[in-house]
Amino acid sequence: MVPVADVFVNMPGASAREVERQVATRLEKLLYQIDGVEYVYSTSFEGTAMVTVRFYVGQNREDSWVKLYNKISSNVDQVPPGVTGWVVKPWRSTTFRSST
Description:
Blueprint: E1 4-10, H1 16-31, E2 37-45, E3 48-55, H2 61-73, E4 85-90
Antiparallel strand pairs: 1-3, 1-4, 2-3
């Protein structure tokens, strides 16, 4: 199993470009700092961003999600103006297989 979670961030009234610059890019950099993270990637839309965090294979799911919640919670002082909230949605079942 591979621990994966999506972080949805709301920034009403902001363009996709503003959301990318003020939310998604900053959040990607922050989440890459978490021990055990393999990939972080995002998609920005008008008024919202979705940032996906994928941990390395073999990482404990619950421990990984706790690290993610802790990282976000300990950095709420860096939330840009205009952000009205966010939701962290862990994926419940993720198995990546090699095609080789």
